[in-house]
Please model this.
Amino acid sequence: MEDKSNENPLRQGMRLIRTPQPCTLIIFGATGDLTRRKLIPSLFSLYNQSLLPQNFNIIAFARRPKTTEEFRRDMADGLKEFSEFQIDKNPGLDRFLSLIHYHRGDFTQIETHEKLKKFLQKLEDKKDGQRNRLHYLATPPSQYDSIIKNLGTAQLARNENGWTRIIIEKPFGRDLQSALELNKITGDVFTEDQIYRIDHYLGKETVQNILVFRFANGIFEPIWNRRYIDHVQITVAENIGVEGRGRFFEETGILRDIVQNHMLQLLSLFAMEPPSAFDANAVRDEKVKVLKAISPLSRQYIKNNVVRGQYAAGSLMAKSLSGYLQEEGIPDNSITETYVAMKLFIDNWRWASVPFYLRAGKRLPKRVTEIAIYFKDAPLQIFGDVTEGEIPANVLTLKIQPDEGISLKFDSKVPGPGGNIRPVNMDFRYGTSFGESPPDAYERLLLDAMIGDSTLFTRSDENEKAWELLTPILHYWQNNKNRVPQYNIGSWGPKEADDLLNKENRAWRRL
Ligand SMILES: NC(=O)c1ccc[n+]([C@@H]2O[C@H](COP(=O)([O-])OP(=O)(O)OC[C@H]3O[C@@H](n4cnc5c(N)ncnc54)[C@H](OP(=O)(O)O)[C@@H]3O)[C@@H](O)[C@H]2O)c1
Model:
């Protein structure tokens, strides 16, 4: 049995400082972009806050020849660029870097895993002999299979004189079939409670706050249902394009990259029933129930309710930019979507017939992630004769990034003798209320995995359900190789996306 005495983030972690047991983190793919930009800066931040355990070590595993000294120097350079902490003259920097050891090898070779095992044991024996190990797969997904199998063969997957866990980066599968296969490969070597499928959105404070907002406050629950809510809009907009990662994106598309993981996570946290306890399985059970309740998407439904798009050449903030098809590495006949919008229904008593509109895209006017809840109109409109035009709906917005906060738009009388009514905002902003910006999502998730708390990680059934829902869209698009509708850079997507709401007398929120 695993010792989980430290677990439960919101119940105790928001108040108490949680320090994990001594352990070793093994980063597979340590010379990659994710390690340099996110993992090492997050670990350094945890180190500076004294949140890393005693006797902590990092083994950086990658293929290119490098000495430990060289690797530490690379990481010091990376920290200068990406750490929120002052690096020059930071007395902790050298001590932090001394925790890192470089291990060179090819993931596909069993010998390198056997060498890794010996190296680990030596390191652990020098300390207290406890074998608490956290493997982190920060590699292209094509490597997951060999690494997991080799960890099994080298007996680096067992809990033996300590715990062993594995964090697996997204994407976890690229459709239902591949997700099932990957879950099988992983499940043959690790038990489900050892597996931490990461979706860094869940590490964001604002995403966790969806649960606190809903379940720590008494006033919202009574209106959180079909009786009061007209519809919900979830937006994940980026103003950037593929940023030199065209080949990766061409194989992925926005549906796989954003909707399958981040957006369905937001949707299920928003729509789930209250869990019976704040623990990993109770929360994830409720999230899976939401995914199971979403109406399956038939071909006809997809045709009428799912829209894709590709950005066409244009300009954004006075800068001329090339369209998706002109980006490096993108074939002229590409049908990969850089934009998607869709309508979903959740068939349960709480949400029956409430449309959930989702949109995600690249090269949109600004970077913004939010959930906007549109409430129904007041049952009787008594101000029709005294105000001009329609009275706008009340909208509650959960702002995930970049302006983290919550805002409520409601209608108010314009001062003066007339009777005009105008919407006003009531705003809560994290920065203003708490006087500090939220920590990076990876800090929270790395710490949770070391502590053994999987609440903010995706369970296998959750991952499979998400793929089961969206795979018919992937198949539909593959079988309909028509030109993908284009949208202008700096616009909010193709006309077809506007039509999706306009035909129901609704409109996307202007951001
Ligand atoms: N980058 C991000 O911001 C980001 C964000 C979210 C999720 N992710 C996910 O995180 C994962 C890693 O992304 P990344 O951008 O860091 O990838 P990356 O820059 O391409 O790095 C890949 C790493 O894997 C190593 N590698 C590949 N094949 C190997 C082999 N056969 N043996 C040993 N080492 C091998 C490379 O080592 P050498 O270079 O030494 O050969 C390198 O360290 C991906 O699953 C990605 O989807 C990344």
The radius of gyration is 24 Å. The first strand starts at residue 24 and ends at 28.
